[in-house]
Amino acid sequence: MLRHHIEREDEIGRQIRDLMKSGMLVPDELVNQLVANRIQAPDCAEGFILDGYPRTLNQAAMLRKLVEANGIESAVVHLVVDYERLVARLSGRRQCPVCGTLYNLATNPPRVDEKCDLDGAALITREDDRESVILERLSQYEHQTRPLLDYFHSSGVPMFEIKGAGVAPEAIARDICEKLSGQRQAIP
To answer: At the N or C end, where does the chain have fewer CB atoms within 10 A?
Structure first.
């Protein structure tokens, strides 16, 4: 949602662009309002996945109110990933500025070094994929986001830890779907 606003260069996008470039988190009030608006959209009526939200205890409390007010069943999926692997993966990410195709120098490199396979454009490193920005985000994660695991655990929200390092994305997706489908059957 945040990148969408940045790409549109609307008022919200301009507000958050510099924060994200430096690795800082967007203020809770703004993110909470964006999420509240988004989950009311018709395409969310049958369910939705929130990736990267909530990141703070304030956001978690707001989300809990939103799902309870709307009668939404929820669960938390925690992907467990080693920080060194995470930094290497993110800092190796490249994107085509023309078509938006994503590459990774280690796991999904382009056929021609630093060139898009589809249109030949020179690939770029997004501002938020620079190592210094990634390290700042991880630092903020430790201080602001990791406490959410305790919060959701103590609040009774079903939680699943999924190994996310060294596992193919398809296997991760399959594991998540299996856990959630089992959870859905267990909820009366």
So the answer is: C
